[in-house]
Amino acid sequence: MEKFEKVKQLVASIEADADKFYNKANGAAGTRIRKGMQDLKVLAGEIRKEVTERKNSK
């Protein structure tokens, strides 16, 4: 559950940059979004692995 909370925090932190990029044409915010999305991808992979391990251990 700890990693799921991290996902929610990460999405919330990307939200402001998404507004800057899409509504104000801020290119640097786009770079931060891309980095945040990569972090989400890694975290999602870790969560998937953890869920699979718990499911198979029962």
Summarize, please.
By secondary structure, this protein is an all-alpha fold. It contains 2 helices and no strands. The relative contact order is 0.15.
Classify the helix fraction into a percent range: over 70%
Determine the oligomeric state from the structure: single chain
Largest sheet: none
Q: Bin the strand percentage.
A: under 5%
In the predicted model, the low-confidence regions spanning at least 5 consecutive residues are: none
Strand/helix succession? HH
Distance between the termini: 18 Å
Can you put this structure into words, describing what you see?
- There is one protein chain.
- By secondary structure, the chain is an all-alpha fold.
- Helix content is 91%, strand content 0%.
- It is elongated and about 50 Å long.
- The relative contact order is 0.15.
Secondary structure layout:
Blueprint: H1 2-24, H2 27-56
Main features:
mainly alpha; about 90% helix; about 60 residues; elongated
